[in-house]
Amino acid sequence: MNIPSSDLVKAAEAAVEAVSRPLELAVVLPTYNERKNVATMVARLDEALKGIAWEAIFVDDNSPDGTSDEARQLSQVDPRVRCIQRIGRRGLASAAIEGMCSTAAPIVAVMDADHQHDPALLPKMLAAVETGEYDLAYASRFAEGASTEAWGRPDRVKASGLANRIANKVTGVELTDPMSGFFMLRTETLRADAHRLSGVGFKILLDILATVDRPLKVKEFPLNFAARAEGESKLDQTVVFEFLVGLYDKWLGRIIPTRFALFGTVGAMGVVVQLAALWALLHLAFGERFVYGNWSESATFNVANTLAAVIAMTFNFALNNELTYSDKRLRGFGPLMRGWAQFGVTCSLGLLTNVGSAAVLKTIGIHDFVAVVTGIVLGSVWNFALSSKFVWGK
Ligand code: GDD
Ligand code: MN
């Protein structure tokens, strides 16, 4: 690699700067397809954080656009830049947690890498947290003096209003923007409770506030939420869904694990799909009298029901891939076909477990209803365990 000499001089200066004082601040930047924003982001941090010993940690989920390569390239000439490249995983919240846990700096910030968050706020936030006066500083899009005009998303401003009220109820802390992705706190505060953070599609700041037992003293800074510099947002379709999942995870996640609850809900929807498909096949496809050609009525029913079961299984596979295992989503024709086939085998075994265990319970004299429900629960647990390991495993 050919590095221009001016860059080497800058690198030497940065290196001297980096080792001459203990690290004060780490800035964690979760990234997915932000290649074009990485270098400009580092330049802005350099500008904003003059006189502060800082490091930037890009936590990249193996972006296809080569964001990790870009971050590593910068890192070669500027030791303050670090890159964590995660393979086979997706998720803003979990990326932020991993980044925050990976630093030796006493204070850590999280911010978006797409220039929507203004790094000029970082020194002010640092001053608030460093002195110990506040436990947490964060930038609010809805505080007095903030603006979201450049955002150009009035729909999301409105949606945020309702979600914010719910969020404030959950955490017991009144914030104007609990969904903010731009905040700073002492690393030890985070580390003490990091193992209890869910990392499941919950807004990370909200998760921290809801998880840390003692009330945190929070300092709010008004933010001018800018338009994204390059690329596009990744949170659009799933914001509301992830918010609900996050709420569930906080309230009941410890009793029935969130992923299992999602899997079960999808399964229940599958039952409805199978019934609807069976009805449609019998009434619409196989004709009025439920008899196809010269097949008997029961043969027609069995064929239709088998088709309906395959349709429901496919529906469940697609929805689980989209929602339940969104962080391990299978993509591309090959992986999808393989996953679908594996899911089919898993479900067939699950059905045997379901029907088999109910039969056993019935023979030992357990009430029909209890036997059936137990069978359904056991079959679902079996399906879930096998799917997690074999279909969406690795
Ligand atoms: N590692 C990783 N993995 N990073 C991700 C992922 C992911 O799955 N998804 C998004 N990011 C990164 C983006 O690359 C960007 O740097 C930052 O997280 C924010 O993502 P955007 O896709 O730009 O989010 P947004 O602008 O629509 O959402 C904003 O508002 C949310 C609340 O409404 C952000 O400020 C969020 O932080 C905030 O929670
Ligand atoms: Mn953004």
Automatic annotation (TrEMBL):
Q: Where is the Glycosyltransferase 2-like domain?
A: 27-190
- One Pfam family, short name please? GtrA_DPMS_TM
Its membrane topology: Multi-pass membrane protein
Q: Which UniProt keywords apply?
A: Glycosyltransferase, Membrane, Transferase, Transmembrane, Transmembrane helix
In this entry, which stretches build a coiled coil? none
List where the protein spans the membrane.
260-281, 301-319, 340-360, 366-386
The residues covered by the GtrA/DPMS transmembrane domain are: 263-392
Give the matching InterPro entries: DPM1-like (IPR039528), Glyco_trans_2-like (IPR001173), GtrA_DPMS_TM (IPR007267), Nucleotide-diphossugar_trans (IPR029044)
Coarse class of the protein's main subcellular location: membrane
Gene3D superfamilies linked to this entry = Spore Coat Polysaccharide Biosynthesis Protein SpsA, Chain A
CDD domains per UniProt: DPM1_like (cd06442)
- What is its subcellular localisation? Membrane
As for family, the record states: Belongs to the glycosyltransferase 2 family.
Name of the protein? Glycosyltransferase family 2 protein
Q: State the organism of origin.
A: Novosphingobium mangrovi (ex Huang et al. 2023)
